[in-house]
Amino acid sequence: PRSTPKPSSAASDVYKRQMFASLITGLAVGLGGAAMLLQTQMSDTSFLAQPLNQALVLALAALAAIGGWVGVLRDRAPYGAVVRAAVERHFASLFVRDDNEAFGHVVLQDLVADGLVLDRDYRVTANYAGTYGACRIRMLDAVADAARGHRHDRVDLLVFRVSLPFSLASETRADSRADMLRTAVAGRPEFTPYHVDHDQFDGIFGTVSTNIRDVGRILTPGFVETLLRIQEHLANPLTKGVDAQPRVAMQAVANSLLLVVEAPSVAGHDTIVSPAAAETLARALIMRFATAPALVDDLHGVPDIPPAFAPLPRMDAPLPILAF
Protein backbone atom coordinates (compact mmCIF):
# COMPACT_ATOMS: atom_id res chain seq x y z
CA PRO A 1 0.00 0.00 0.00
CA ARG A 2 1.15 3.47 -0.83
CA SER A 3 0.32 6.40 1.40
CA THR A 4 -0.48 9.83 0.06
CA PRO A 5 1.76 12.78 0.93
CA LYS A 6 0.86 14.83 3.95
CA PRO A 7 -1.23 17.91 3.22
CA SER A 8 0.81 20.83 1.88
CA SER A 9 -0.39 23.10 4.70
CA ALA A 10 1.05 20.71 7.29
CA ALA A 11 4.34 20.50 5.39
CA SER A 12 4.42 24.29 5.18
CA ASP A 13 3.92 24.61 8.94
CA VAL A 14 6.75 22.17 9.60
CA TYR A 15 9.02 24.09 7.22
CA LYS A 16 8.22 27.38 8.97
CA ARG A 17 9.00 25.88 12.38
CA GLN A 18 12.29 24.51 11.07
CA MET A 19 13.24 27.90 9.63
CA PHE A 20 12.37 29.61 12.93
CA ALA A 21 14.45 27.08 14.88
CA SER A 22 17.36 27.61 12.48
CA LEU A 23 17.11 31.38 12.95
CA ILE A 24 17.12 31.04 16.75
CA THR A 25 20.10 28.70 16.54
CA GLY A 26 22.00 31.17 14.35
CA LEU A 27 21.29 34.04 16.72
CA ALA A 28 22.33 31.94 19.72
CA VAL A 29 25.61 30.93 18.06
CA GLY A 30 26.25 34.54 17.07
CA LEU A 31 25.53 35.77 20.60
CA GLY A 32 27.82 33.14 22.12
CA GLY A 33 30.59 33.91 19.66
CA ALA A 34 30.28 37.64 20.22
CA ALA A 35 30.43 37.15 23.97
CA MET A 36 33.64 35.14 23.71
CA LEU A 37 35.16 37.65 21.30
CA LEU A 38 34.25 40.75 23.27
CA GLN A 39 35.48 39.47 26.62
CA THR A 40 39.08 39.60 25.34
CA GLN A 41 38.71 43.28 24.46
CA MET A 42 37.01 44.52 27.64
CA SER A 43 38.40 45.73 30.91
CA ASP A 44 38.50 43.50 33.96
CA THR A 45 35.55 45.39 35.46
CA SER A 46 33.15 44.79 32.56
CA PHE A 47 30.17 42.40 32.78
CA LEU A 48 31.56 39.78 30.36
CA ALA A 49 34.98 39.80 32.00
CA GLN A 50 33.59 37.72 34.86
CA PRO A 51 33.74 33.94 34.15
CA LEU A 52 30.37 33.35 35.82
CA ASN A 53 28.69 35.95 33.62
CA GLN A 54 30.29 34.45 30.49
CA ALA A 55 28.97 31.02 31.43
CA LEU A 56 25.51 32.51 32.03
CA VAL A 57 25.40 34.14 28.58
CA LEU A 58 26.58 30.96 26.86
CA ALA A 59 24.06 28.85 28.79
CA LEU A 60 21.20 31.16 27.81
CA ALA A 61 22.30 31.01 24.16
CA ALA A 62 22.43 27.20 24.30
CA LEU A 63 18.99 26.99 25.93
CA ALA A 64 17.53 29.25 23.23
CA ALA A 65 18.95 27.02 20.50
CA ILE A 66 17.71 23.83 22.18
CA GLY A 67 14.28 25.34 22.84
CA GLY A 68 13.93 26.29 19.19
CA TRP A 69 14.36 22.68 18.08
CA VAL A 70 12.40 20.97 20.85
CA GLY A 71 9.11 22.08 19.32
CA VAL A 72 10.14 20.83 15.90
CA LEU A 73 11.29 17.44 17.16
CA ARG A 74 8.22 16.91 19.35
CA ASP A 75 5.85 17.92 16.55
CA ARG A 76 6.55 14.91 14.36
CA ALA A 77 3.37 13.87 12.60
CA PRO A 78 2.23 10.36 13.60
CA TYR A 79 2.03 7.73 10.88
CA GLY A 80 -0.84 5.72 12.36
CA ALA A 81 -3.75 7.36 10.52
CA VAL A 82 -1.83 7.54 7.24
CA VAL A 83 -0.85 3.85 7.44
CA ARG A 84 -4.42 2.76 8.19
CA ALA A 85 -5.71 4.84 5.27
CA ALA A 86 -3.14 3.23 2.97
CA VAL A 87 -4.13 -0.28 4.05
CA GLU A 88 -7.82 0.60 3.66
CA ARG A 89 -7.15 1.68 0.07
CA HIS A 90 -5.21 -1.52 -0.55
CA PHE A 91 -8.29 -3.55 0.46
CA ALA A 92 -10.86 -1.14 -1.01
CA SER A 93 -12.25 -3.85 -3.32
CA LEU A 94 -13.03 -5.95 -0.26
CA PHE A 95 -13.99 -3.53 2.53
CA VAL A 96 -15.39 -0.05 2.89
CA ARG A 97 -15.85 1.90 6.09
CA ASP A 98 -19.36 1.77 7.52
CA ASP A 99 -20.30 4.86 9.49
CA ASN A 100 -23.23 3.06 11.12
CA GLU A 101 -21.62 2.58 14.53
CA ALA A 102 -24.99 1.61 15.99
CA PHE A 103 -24.81 -1.71 14.15
CA GLY A 104 -21.36 -2.29 15.59
CA HIS A 105 -22.68 -1.75 19.11
CA VAL A 106 -25.53 -4.19 18.43
CA VAL A 107 -22.98 -6.83 17.40
CA LEU A 108 -20.98 -6.20 20.58
CA GLN A 109 -24.11 -6.47 22.73
CA ASP A 110 -24.92 -9.83 21.10
CA LEU A 111 -21.37 -11.04 21.78
CA VAL A 112 -21.71 -10.09 25.44
CA ALA A 113 -25.13 -11.75 25.69
CA ASP A 114 -23.75 -14.97 24.16
CA GLY A 115 -20.76 -14.96 26.50
CA LEU A 116 -18.21 -14.61 23.69
CA VAL A 117 -16.73 -11.47 25.27
CA LEU A 118 -16.81 -10.02 28.77
CA ASP A 119 -19.26 -7.26 29.63
CA ARG A 120 -17.13 -4.10 29.28
CA ASP A 121 -17.68 -0.56 28.09
CA TYR A 122 -16.61 -1.12 24.48
CA ARG A 123 -15.94 1.75 22.09
CA VAL A 124 -16.11 1.08 18.36
CA THR A 125 -13.00 2.48 16.67
CA ALA A 126 -13.51 1.13 13.12
CA ASN A 127 -16.38 -0.59 11.35
CA TYR A 128 -16.03 -2.15 7.88
CA ALA A 129 -18.49 -3.92 5.60
CA GLY A 130 -18.07 -5.62 2.26
CA THR A 131 -18.50 -8.69 0.10
CA TYR A 132 -16.09 -11.31 -1.15
CA GLY A 133 -17.52 -13.54 -3.82
CA ALA A 134 -21.09 -14.17 -2.75
CA CYS A 135 -20.27 -13.82 0.94
CA ARG A 136 -21.13 -10.84 3.12
CA ILE A 137 -18.35 -9.92 5.51
CA ARG A 138 -17.89 -7.45 8.34
CA MET A 139 -14.90 -6.42 10.40
CA LEU A 140 -15.19 -4.46 13.62
CA ASP A 141 -12.47 -2.87 15.76
CA ALA A 142 -13.27 -1.94 19.35
CA VAL A 143 -11.39 -1.07 22.52
CA ALA A 144 -12.35 -1.29 26.18
CA ASP A 145 -10.84 -0.50 29.55
CA ALA A 146 -9.79 -3.61 31.44
CA ALA A 147 -10.92 -4.38 34.96
CA ARG A 148 -9.12 -2.68 37.84
CA GLY A 149 -6.00 -4.43 38.99
CA HIS A 150 -5.45 -5.94 35.55
CA ARG A 151 -1.88 -5.83 34.31
CA HIS A 152 -2.97 -4.24 31.02
CA ASP A 153 -5.02 -1.03 31.00
CA ARG A 154 -6.94 -1.64 27.78
CA VAL A 155 -8.15 -4.50 25.60
CA ASP A 156 -8.33 -4.49 21.80
CA LEU A 157 -11.20 -6.42 20.23
CA LEU A 158 -11.34 -7.53 16.60
CA VAL A 159 -14.58 -9.10 15.36
CA PHE A 160 -15.26 -10.78 12.01
CA ARG A 161 -18.71 -11.74 10.83
CA VAL A 162 -18.92 -13.99 7.76
CA SER A 163 -22.01 -15.50 6.17
CA LEU A 164 -22.00 -19.29 5.88
CA PRO A 165 -22.69 -21.19 2.64
CA PHE A 166 -25.29 -23.24 4.52
CA SER A 167 -27.68 -22.81 7.44
CA LEU A 168 -27.11 -24.53 10.77
CA ALA A 169 -29.73 -25.76 13.19
CA SER A 170 -26.99 -26.22 15.80
CA GLU A 171 -24.31 -24.05 17.43
CA THR A 172 -20.59 -24.76 17.44
CA ARG A 173 -17.96 -22.88 19.45
CA ALA A 174 -14.19 -22.98 19.67
CA ASP A 175 -12.09 -20.91 22.06
CA SER A 176 -8.38 -20.69 22.83
CA ARG A 177 -9.32 -19.82 26.43
CA ALA A 178 -10.83 -23.01 27.83
CA ASP A 179 -11.88 -21.24 31.04
CA MET A 180 -13.97 -18.68 29.15
CA LEU A 181 -15.53 -21.40 27.01
CA ARG A 182 -16.55 -23.36 30.13
CA THR A 183 -18.05 -20.21 31.65
CA ALA A 184 -19.97 -19.37 28.48
CA VAL A 185 -21.64 -22.80 28.22
CA ALA A 186 -22.05 -23.45 31.95
CA GLY A 187 -25.59 -24.54 32.72
CA ARG A 188 -26.27 -25.39 29.08
CA PRO A 189 -26.26 -29.21 28.88
CA GLU A 190 -27.03 -29.17 25.16
CA PHE A 191 -23.35 -28.40 24.48
CA THR A 192 -21.09 -31.42 24.10
CA PRO A 193 -17.27 -31.28 24.06
CA TYR A 194 -15.66 -32.25 20.78
CA HIS A 195 -12.03 -33.17 20.06
CA VAL A 196 -10.76 -32.15 16.64
CA ASP A 197 -8.43 -34.64 14.97
CA HIS A 198 -5.54 -32.17 14.92
CA ASP A 199 -3.03 -32.29 17.77
CA GLN A 200 -1.97 -28.64 17.60
CA PHE A 201 -5.51 -27.31 17.28
CA ASP A 202 -6.86 -29.61 19.99
CA GLY A 203 -4.04 -28.49 22.31
CA ILE A 204 -4.85 -24.78 21.86
CA PHE A 205 -8.62 -24.66 21.32
CA GLY A 206 -11.50 -26.12 23.23
CA THR A 207 -14.49 -27.05 21.08
CA VAL A 208 -18.14 -27.65 21.97
CA SER A 209 -21.28 -28.10 19.88
CA THR A 210 -24.97 -28.74 20.29
CA ASN A 211 -24.72 -31.24 17.43
CA ILE A 212 -21.32 -32.85 16.96
CA ARG A 213 -22.32 -34.08 13.49
CA ASP A 214 -22.22 -30.45 12.30
CA VAL A 215 -18.72 -29.72 13.59
CA GLY A 216 -17.07 -31.26 10.55
CA ARG A 217 -18.95 -28.89 8.26
CA ILE A 218 -17.27 -25.95 9.97
CA LEU A 219 -13.93 -27.22 11.24
CA THR A 220 -12.62 -28.62 7.98
CA PRO A 221 -8.85 -29.30 7.77
CA GLY A 222 -8.34 -26.05 5.85
CA PHE A 223 -10.41 -24.00 8.29
CA VAL A 224 -8.53 -25.50 11.25
CA GLU A 225 -5.21 -24.45 9.69
CA THR A 226 -6.54 -20.94 9.09
CA LEU A 227 -7.65 -20.57 12.71
CA LEU A 228 -4.19 -21.66 13.81
CA ARG A 229 -2.58 -19.01 11.56
CA ILE A 230 -4.95 -16.36 12.98
CA GLN A 231 -4.05 -17.36 16.53
CA GLU A 232 -0.36 -17.41 15.61
CA HIS A 233 -0.35 -13.91 14.10
CA LEU A 234 -3.01 -12.00 16.01
CA ALA A 235 -3.32 -13.66 19.43
CA ASN A 236 -0.05 -15.37 20.17
CA PRO A 237 0.82 -15.24 23.92
CA LEU A 238 4.52 -15.39 23.02
CA THR A 239 4.35 -12.09 21.12
CA LYS A 240 1.90 -10.13 23.29
CA GLY A 241 4.08 -9.66 26.35
CA VAL A 242 4.41 -11.09 29.82
CA ASP A 243 1.17 -12.28 31.44
CA ALA A 244 -0.85 -11.42 28.34
CA GLN A 245 -3.88 -13.63 27.73
CA PRO A 246 -4.95 -13.05 24.13
CA ARG A 247 -7.64 -15.29 22.74
CA VAL A 248 -9.40 -16.37 19.58
CA ALA A 249 -13.04 -17.44 19.86
CA MET A 250 -15.37 -18.71 17.15
CA GLN A 251 -19.13 -19.17 17.05
CA ALA A 252 -21.01 -20.76 14.13
CA VAL A 253 -24.78 -20.54 14.42
CA ALA A 254 -27.69 -20.20 11.98
CA ASN A 255 -26.22 -18.77 8.75
CA SER A 256 -23.21 -16.83 10.03
CA LEU A 257 -19.83 -17.31 11.65
CA LEU A 258 -18.39 -14.93 14.23
CA LEU A 259 -14.69 -14.77 15.00
CA VAL A 260 -13.37 -12.75 17.95
CA VAL A 261 -9.72 -11.85 18.53
CA GLU A 262 -9.03 -10.25 21.92
CA ALA A 263 -5.62 -9.00 23.06
CA PRO A 264 -4.09 -6.40 25.38
CA SER A 265 -3.81 -2.99 23.75
CA VAL A 266 -0.49 -1.93 22.34
CA ALA A 267 0.73 1.68 22.10
CA GLY A 268 -1.76 3.95 20.39
CA HIS A 269 -1.41 4.50 16.67
CA ASP A 270 -1.26 8.24 17.29
CA THR A 271 2.17 7.74 18.91
CA ILE A 272 3.80 6.00 15.94
CA VAL A 273 6.34 8.35 14.40
CA SER A 274 9.15 6.08 13.16
CA PRO A 275 9.16 4.32 9.76
CA ALA A 276 9.99 0.98 11.40
CA ALA A 277 6.98 1.22 13.72
CA ALA A 278 4.81 2.28 10.78
CA GLU A 279 5.86 -0.82 8.84
CA THR A 280 5.09 -3.04 11.84
CA LEU A 281 1.65 -1.45 12.12
CA ALA A 282 1.05 -1.92 8.39
CA ARG A 283 1.87 -5.63 8.56
CA ALA A 284 -0.47 -6.07 11.53
CA LEU A 285 -3.30 -4.25 9.74
CA ILE A 286 -2.76 -6.22 6.53
CA MET A 287 -2.98 -9.45 8.52
CA ARG A 288 -6.25 -8.26 10.04
CA PHE A 289 -7.79 -7.35 6.69
CA ALA A 290 -6.53 -10.57 5.06
CA THR A 291 -8.18 -12.70 7.75
CA ALA A 292 -11.69 -12.17 6.33
CA PRO A 293 -11.00 -13.52 2.82
CA ALA A 294 -9.02 -16.40 4.35
CA LEU A 295 -12.11 -17.42 6.33
CA VAL A 296 -14.33 -17.09 3.27
CA ASP A 297 -12.00 -19.12 1.06
CA ASP A 298 -12.12 -22.00 3.55
CA LEU A 299 -15.90 -21.85 3.98
CA HIS A 300 -17.00 -20.96 0.44
CA GLY A 301 -14.00 -22.03 -1.64
CA VAL A 302 -14.54 -23.95 -4.87
CA PRO A 303 -11.79 -26.48 -5.67
CA ASP A 304 -11.59 -25.53 -9.36
CA ILE A 305 -11.44 -21.76 -8.73
CA PRO A 306 -8.22 -20.35 -7.23
CA PRO A 307 -8.77 -17.86 -4.37
CA ALA A 308 -8.30 -14.16 -5.03
CA PHE A 309 -6.14 -13.78 -1.91
CA ALA A 310 -3.12 -15.74 -0.83
CA PRO A 311 -3.55 -17.93 2.27
CA LEU A 312 -2.36 -16.56 5.60
CA PRO A 313 1.40 -17.17 5.93
CA ARG A 314 3.15 -19.04 8.70
CA MET A 315 5.14 -17.02 11.22
CA ASP A 316 8.43 -18.34 9.84
CA ALA A 317 7.54 -17.48 6.22
CA PRO A 318 9.46 -14.62 4.51
CA LEU A 319 7.78 -11.26 5.03
CA PRO A 320 6.33 -9.55 1.93
CA ILE A 321 7.88 -6.30 0.81
CA LEU A 322 5.89 -3.17 1.67
CA ALA A 323 6.26 0.14 -0.17
CA PHE A 324 5.08 3.41 1.35
Characterization of this structure:
A nine-stranded antiparallel sheet has the order 1-2-3-4-9-8-5-7-6, with helices on both faces. It has 324 residues and is α+β, with helices and mostly antiparallel strands. It starts with 7 loop residues before the first helix and ends in a 24-residue tail after the last helix. It has nine helices and nine strands. A hairpin with an 8-residue loop joins strand 3 and strand 4 (154-163). The protein has helices spanning 8-38, 51-74, 80-90, 101-113, 178-185, 199-204, 215-218, 221-234, 275-300; strands spanning 96-97, 123-132, 135-145, 154-163, 171-175, 192-193, 206-209, 247-253, 256-264. Mean pLDDT is 81; it is low at 1-8.
